[in-house]
Design brief:
The structure is a homodimer of 300-residue chains. By secondary structure, the first copy, chain A, is α/β, with parallel strands linked by helices. The first copy, chain A, has one domain: UDP-N-acetylmuramoyl-L-alanine:D-glutamate ligase, CATH 3.40.1190.20. Chain A is built from 11 helices and 13 strands. In chain A, the strands form 2 sheets. Chain A has a 9-stranded mixed beta sheet with strand order 5-4-1-8-9-10-11-12-13, sandwiched between helices. The two termini of chain A are 35 Å apart. The relative contact order of chain A is 0.15.
């Protein structure tokens, strides 16, 4: 099978109550692809400027990520985001965003990507997400993520994309905004009537809830004593989830449950270090170990 | 085995964003004993006034709760609490408290209770909790609950009680206050050095975490679409937890895990109706059904 991920590859400046990191590599597509790379060979569609570090390109290659769809704009500057976290890692605020090469980005799916089995529309402008849907030929599974900005600024486009996807990844705030429903269980079920057949509600340190027509699955977040940087947890979750599904080639209830656990495991590693640092050393063996630890954590 | 519960039996006025109920029966001991009564025959130590409803006494008897330690003060008025919940059921504020018969309450353990195997010090003044500890002869297990009021107003007495108990039940806010540690995993582990060998951190709609020297167990809250009244969820958790342990007569890791699930199950029923209403109809069969549903919810 094959997994295509469309999203941002970016520079982030991150401030937590304890530390500040200037201009480190981030982006929804970056985290998702790195996480998925432990299960499959993800193909990415994204854009960066000439200022994007060679070292990270080498990491992508080392992780066997297919970079045919990564456009490098000569003389261009990479998308930049600055965010700040409070003591509650679930709460963050955007300080600054510079679109740069993303301003005129019209994602083009390379011919070799068109027969993707799984397509992930990571958090980008819903107009772009819709455009991408048109370019891929009958994928078996389409998943999407979004953010507050698009729910508020482009609700109509977002609704149109929602109708075309099988899976929605959303955090608790987003799902409440989308459904105008405070209770997460009701909100999750409500979204099922709007397009997706599966909704994954991410609750940060409190784990995630998975809703399908005849499936409710709850998963803890792996207990973490030191959340160094929460950035990318959601995208790593999606990467672990979809990467696993791409590997096992089945979308049954059992696979969905295990995919959610792998999503949670990958997210739990990401937050242990700033940016994508944890992926420089993370091994498959560590992932397998934490999966088992997880099983012990919740078994009774 | 036998379980003795010391705490409050009270009147509550409850306000949620949707409804207000005046002077309904509540109290930490009430919820805990009702929940425990599905597993064992709890003995309660508490005080009420002459105004306490006969109908509730009949419910206690019907649920086979041992009332020898329930003191009814002639002409006295029952303890009263008024609280208000916001849209987030985890957040509540106390509007009014009237101690009434609780003002001069000096709990006395009846002779038939002194050989209790499990003693639960529900949320009352830590000076009273300490006094009770002295009256019970070598219980196998002592558990306690507390609240923000005592952490702030009687920290020294609270520390002394903490040293004498095996299990602490606390919510996320309380455990953070007790340890001055924001991260719940660190906070839970920190408390283990202060007396208890087991800590149960209750996170409301997000479930609970159980920490022991060589045990970490995480449990979801049962998904609930309509939280009618969150009052008593924590005490019902403790009641289900300790009632189950009293029934199985073993305190191993396996039993602790299952006890936590039963705690969560009982709490999930309590919040489906105002006050103790749900206990009027709740059956063992429903509890068994939800336990199994729970297992399906988290299995992978």
């Amino acid at each position: 099978m094959s997994l295509v991920i469309v999203g941002s590859v970016a520079f982030d400046t991150i401030e937590t109550p304890w530390e500040r990191k200037e201009k480190i590599v981030g982006g929804s597509c970056t985290y998702c692809a790195l996480a998925a790379s432990y299960f499959t060979r993800p193909k990415i569609v994204a854009v960066v400027g000439e200022d994007f570090p060679k070292q990270t390109i080498r990491l992508f290659k080392k992780r066997n990520i297919d970079l045919e769809g990564l456009k490098i704009v000569p003389g261009g500057k990479t998308f930049f985001w600055e965010g700040r976290y409070g003591f509650d890692p679930n709460q963050r605020s955007t300080i600054r965003t510079e679109l740069n090469v993303f301003q005129d980005f019209r994602p083009e799916i390379p011919p070799a990507y068109k027969k993707a089995d799984i397509l992930f529309l990571a958090n980008i402008d819903p107009d772009l997400q819709e455009n991408i849907c048109r370019q891929v030929e009958k994928p078996k599974l389409v998943a999407m993520d979004t953010m507050r900005l698009w729910i508020e600024s482009k609700p109509a486009a977002l609704r149109r994309v929602l109708k075309q996807v099988d899976i929605l990844f959303a955090n608790d705030e987003e799902i409440r905004m989308l459904t105008e429903e405070r209770n997460l269980i009701k909100a999750g079920k409500k979204i099922l009537g709007q397009g997706p057949t599966l909704v994954i509600v991410k609750k940060g340190e409190h784990g995630a809830l998975v809703f399908g027509e005849s499936l409710v699955f709850g998963i803890m977040a792996h207990p973490c004593e030191d959340v160094v940087d929460p950035t990318g947890a959601g995208d790593s979750f999606a990467g672990g989830f979809l990467g696993y599904l791409d590997r096992v080639k089945r979308f049954g209830k059992k696979e969905i449950r295990r995919a959610a656990v792998y999503g949670s495991v990958l997210a739990s590693f990401t937050i242990e270090d700033f940016g994508i640092n944890r992926f420089r050393s993370l091994t498959k063996r560590e992932i397998a170990g934490r999966f088992l630890h997880f099983k012990r954590l919740v078994s009774f």
